[in-house]
Amino acid sequence: MSKSSKVESYQGKQVFVGIDVHKRTYAIASFMDGLVIKRWTTPASPEKLAMQLKALYPQADIHTAYEAGFSGFVLHRVLTNAGIENLVVSPGSIETTVYNRVKTDKRDAKKIASLLAAGRLSGIRVPTEQIEQKRLLTRTREQLVQERTSIKNMIRMRAHQFGLLSPEDRREMGQSLLKAILAKTPSSEFTTIIHAYEKIWQTLDTEIKAIEAQLKQQAQQDPLESTYRSAPGIGPLSARILSNELGDMRQFANERQLFSYTGLTPSEHSSGDAIRRGHITRQGNTRVRHILCESAWVAIRKDQDLRRFYERLYPKTGKKKAIVAVARKLVGRLRSAFRQDVPYRLNPIS
Predict the structure, then answer these.
(1) CATH 3.30.420.10, the chain: domain bounds
(2) Does the domain formed by 14-117 have CATH 2.40.480.10?
(3) pLDDT tens-digit series, residues 157-207
(4) Rounded Cα–Cα distance for residues 240 and 138 (Å)
(5) Strand, coil or helix: 277
């Protein structure tokens, strides 16, 4: 561990701190004037870390950063309330060189600190605690639906294992198919494990329905609901996800910010004077990007302008790239509706 440099006063100094967050500890590296001045590990207590930084670097302008992840935004809020400027950064935005792929906590903390000092990090949009609470419903529903799909796949796998389903059978795993499998059960052991999966499936169904009922109540109290629902391809569940993830889209100063947040910004490859746009960066909010692309497929069947736009693009770009472009246009128009305080302007297909 390097020792802190002997500076009588940190007044007017800029100190840049990288934090590698783990469940029980934080690994920390601090930079000043282009040099590492201290590295240390401390228990994962946001309040304790804020006090340490203020005590170590009194009167300094302290800038911190850490990667978004399981720990959420409690650390960010504590640091900010302590007067420390903090960035929460996307893991994908941390630069990695070809010759520096070894992952260690201290190296990660140093890398974050050095990039922060160089001004090469940009933070993600940090939601309020109230918005985080609202997102619990849509995000937990998504997790439970994934769990239910996994259980259904396990039943299908067991049925394949004993020749009760042919590989070509593409029927959705529902109650009728489940009964058909049980009717051909080869043993009591097989019946026992299928019934065990079925009980978990039923429990998940019950909990998903309870969350969906609360989502309906949430929608009734949400002033943003009507604007989201006015757009083609956006149904009740999509509107809940978009409202909870994007909020009032007037918060985005321009479309570039919006596309960056949704991960719908095309990547650029420059060579000399030539600039080629490639696949989307895939950084940003995955849930929102998925919902917008799914909604775009429906929207081109309902909105004449979007349909023409798609038909003009896909012969040259392919269907996937074309639908991503439609998703960009769809969410851009939604932002415009919010800014003008009007419903989405639909040009219906007659």
Answers:
(1) 14-117
(2) no
(3) 999 999 999 888 889 999 999 999 999 989 999 999 999 999 999 999 999
(4) 7
(5) strand
